[in-house]
Here is the input.
Amino acid sequence: MTYCCAIKINAGMVFLSDSRTNAGVDSISTFRKMLVYERPGDRFMVMLSAGNLSITQSVREILQDESVEHLETGAPVTIWNARSMFDAARVLGSAVRRVEERDGPALRQAGLDFNVSLIFGGQIAGEGMRLFLVYSAGNFIEATAETPYFQIGESKYGKPVLDRVITTTTPLDEAAKCALVSMDSTIKSNLSVGLPLDLVVYQAGALQSDRVICIDHDNPYFQMLHNSWGERLRQVFDSIEDPQWNGGKTEVPLRVESKRYPALRKIGSPAERLI
Here is the structure.
C-alpha cells in the first residue's frame, strides 16, 4: 500500500511519500512513488502516485511525451511547455486516460479495477503555486485555502494532525514537520506503509529546490520525531483528567443529561422493543 501527502501553504509546498509496495505480508517491495520534474527558473513540478503499480509506472512513462491541445490555439501542450499548472494537470489526466484505454479492458477481464490516484503540484514561471488531486478517470480537483493539502493511499491515520495544524499561514519548516508526524502516525498504525521516505520541500517562487532527501531508518531527525511524538502524546494523554462516574469532585463531569438525546435504553426481555 502507500501513503503520500502534499501541502500547499503561502510559504511553499511540501511533498512526502513512503516507498512500500506489498501484495500480502510475505511479498513486500520498495518502489519510489515520487517523481520531480525541474527546469530551474522555469518550472518545478512533483508527482506522487498510489494504486496499481503497473498503472502508475505506465503513467509516469507516458507523461514524459504526452500532449493535449491548447484550449485556445490548438497547439500541443506537454508538461515541459505548459504555461500553467492547470494545463500540465490536463496532460497528466490525458496520460491516465491513455493507460486506461490500453490496459483497462484487460484488467477488468481479469477482475481487477483500474486503480490509480495521483497528486500533482508545483509552480510554473508567471503564475503561483498550484496543487491537484488526479483521479483514475483523469479528472482532477485543486487545493484551496480551505483545503491546503491532499493525501492518497492510507490517508486516515495521518489526517488528524494535518487537520489540526496546517493552515495557509503555517511556516514551511513547520509544515514539513507536520507531514513527517502524519507519516510517522501512519507507519505506526499500518504495516503496509514504511520507510524509506522521500521528502521534497519547495519555497514559493524559487522554481527549483535543493531540499530533496531520502529518509531511512538511520535518519536521526526522523528517529527523534518518532520518539518525541510518542512520548509527548502519552504525556498529554496522562495530563487529561479521567472521567468521574460516581459523583467525584470535578469541574468537567461526564455523566450529565443531554438536552437533545436520551441515554441509551437497555433491553431486558424478549418482549421489549426499541420502537
Notes: Residues 54 and 231 are 40 Å apart (CA to CA).
